[in-house]
Amino acid sequence: MAKSEKPKILVVNDDAASLLALTSLLEQWAAETNYEVVTARSGQEALRHVLTYDFAVILLDVNMPGMDGFETAEIIHARPRSADIPIIFITAFVADEIDRLKAYQRGAVDFMFTPVIPQILHAKVSVFVALAMKNEELKRQAHKLSQRTTELTATNKRLIREMEERRDAERKSHAKDEFLAMLGHELRNPLSAISSAASLIGLPGTGPETAARARAIIQRQSQHLSHIVDDLLDLSRAMSGKILLNRQPTEISAIVKGCYETFRATGRMLDYTVELDANTGWVHADPTRIEQITSNLIDNALKYTPAGGRIDIVTRVEGEEVLITVRDSGMGIGPDLLPQVFDVFVQGSITIDRAQGGLGIGLALVRRLVELHGGSVTAHSDGPGTGSTFMIRLPRSEAVVQEVSAPHLDDEAGGMRSVLLIEDNDDGRDMMASMLTSFGYEVRCAADGLQGVSMAAADLPDVALVDIGLPGIDGYEVARRLRADAGTRGIRLIALTGYGQAEDNRRVLEAGFDVHLVKPVQMDELLEAINQAVPHVVRA
Predict the structure, then answer these.
(1) Of 70, 204, 325, 425, whose CB neighbour count within 10 A is largest?
(2) Where are the annotated coiled coils located (predicted)?
């Protein structure tokens, strides 16, 4: 029954006169009692009305041809939606107890005999109409309550979600704060060592042995700073999907052995028992990134394993996968941290006396690089003090035979002698010029882009080392102007920049550079790039 509808009374009687008499009586009180009257001349017609409307009460004649009142009532109450409609049987015959029992069994609530007493009919109908209206009001209230409950449930879920998001944001913020604090610590340590070593070299009375040791410290700590920056940049590129893999057939055991030898040569493994079991396995991967993954896992094991501990490094083929496993006997991982160990900014307990230090981003980088190769990485630990196991799974590829030749680096500059260095950083320019001069190159320097273009046109060097972030005009414009001039377009152009993403490499090459080198540049890498310089255009 819709909210705007009045309760309905169904009167069923096959006798037209009786039907008219009942209907007339009921319609006298319809406006006062607020109901509507619907009529039917047979049981079949009554059933059709019941399928269409909800009724407050049905006045049903017992004696009808075809389908009598008892059968009609039974069918009405057999239907779930109309099962609760009260039925008052109306009959002109005196009903015995058997008839009354039969009527009640079929859902009758009362009996009335004709001729009907109007006051009694009015009283009974009014009761059922009022009851119907009350039931309808209860239904509306129940519906509103259900809607309100749904709204409150949704609000509660939203509040719980917002609380969880807030707690998660607070955890991430706290983790970032710890990460930034650790980053500051990790940067200050090498910077302090570099500053102290540089000051020591300049002190009066510093002997050659002390100066050599100070220079070694500066070189070692500079490499450490470079490693920190590389890890940060690589993680940022990996998370944003900007790392481009140089995939090729790669033999895993050779890379793992190389990483092992590097750590052993630097003395990092002196205080540990390290066992290497490297079995041949081929993957289609970027060798540089696989080396980075392996180095990070070994470095992680060394950081979190006390001196005297054991580290096992294993590679093997298992079905269609190649596995790299690094197992240590170190401090282990607690059950609360284990599910998050590969998340960004997540790190184990940070203590000021931890020997190896670190930023806690190595494992996050490992996972992303492994995923870029279509592999997976898992961590296992039985808890604090039980050690940890990290396992890399990479898709196996077919073995190939490849010839590996070491790059040749000329000992002397040969015929390529003149270098133009365009760099706006005074210290960087002076140090780079001094290094190149010590290797026998004739070096001229420019402090900005316009000066560099002018000097290149005047001196026609064999090679120009060009910083990208220059005042006046940037390195890209320097390259474009040199390539546009017939006199300078044959100069070999090498870009030196702190930007190392794929997009930066593309912009460098489009501007006209021959080589893109990312700062800080290793001297052997720079010398190799210079020594490959061959004038490819005959100058006018």
Answers:
(1) 70
(2) 128-172
CA distance 495 to 514: 8
**Token code pair at residue 526:** 């720079």
- Confidence band of 405 (pLDDT split at 50, 70, 90): very low
Q: Answer yes or no: are the C-beta atoms of 495 and 479 closer than 8 Å.
A: yes
The secondary structure of residue 211, as a DSSP letter, is H
What kind of architecture, by CATH, is found in domain 248-395? 2-Layer Sandwich (3.30)
pTM tops 0.70, yes or no: no
248-395 against 418-531: fold identical:
no
CATH number for the region 418-531 comes to 3.40.50.2300
pLDDT band at 303 (very low <50, low <70, confident <90, very high): confident
Residue 60 three-state SS:
strand
Both structure tokens of 45: 């017609």
SS in 3 state form for 104-158? HHCCEEEEEECCCCHHHHHHHHHHHHHHHHHHHHHHHHHHHHHHHHHHHHHHHHH
Whether the CB-CB separation of 536 and 524 falls below 8 Å is answered with no
Write out the H or E segment, with its range, that includes residue 277. Answer: strand 273-278
All structural domains of the chain with their residue ranges: 8-116, 248-395, 418-531
pLDDT at 199 over 60: yes
pLDDT (0 to 100) of residue 345: 57
pLDDT tens digits along 483-524 = 999 899 889 999 988 776 667 788 888 899 998 888 777 777
Torsion of the alpha carbons at 452, 456, 462 and 467, rounded to the nearest 10:
20
pLDDT of residue 537 exceeding 70, the answer is no
For domain 8-116, give the CATH number: 3.40.50.2300
In this predicted structure, the answer to whether residue 414 has a pLDDT above a threshold of 60 is: no
Q: What is each CA distance from 143 to 147, 201, 525, in whole angstroms? A: 6, 86, 77
Q: How many residues does the chain have?
A: 540
Q: Kindly give the interhelix angle for 16-33 and 118-202, rounded to the nearest 10 degrees.
A: 50
Query: Of all helices (H) and strands (E), which one includes residue 282?
Result: strand 282-285
Q: Quote the pLDDT of residue 261.
A: 87
